[in-house]
Amino acid sequence: MPTVIVIQLSHASIFSLATATALLVTGAIRLSYFANFGRSSDGRFLGVPLSYDVPLLALLFLLQPFIGAELFEWFVNVCFLLLAAAHVASIRVPSPSPAMYAAISIFVVVSSAALAMGRLSSYV
Length: 124
Prior knowledge:
The protein has one domain (2-95). Helix content is 70%, strand content 5%. The protein is built from five helices and two strands.
């Protein structure tokens, strides 16, 4: 889903198509690696999980009012290119703890409400 939004946000520019392709390719590599090897013996993931894409997209849209429209398109593409690289990087990411799941749930509710309120206020 983030790839579609990145492409649409950037009006199908070459940069957004390259970003989307990078996300799809690195996502496929990440999933195939995880399917074969899973987590390491210490319970960590190798590379940033794909589930980080949507919260990053929400965070970027929350920051949109503070970034100019022209810069925002570029900023989103660069952030997702960096995230695509992080998906296949040799970064050890710990599995979420129960406290982290609570923090993620709170972030989801708060960011969803903030995005909805921001969109609703633009119609008034």
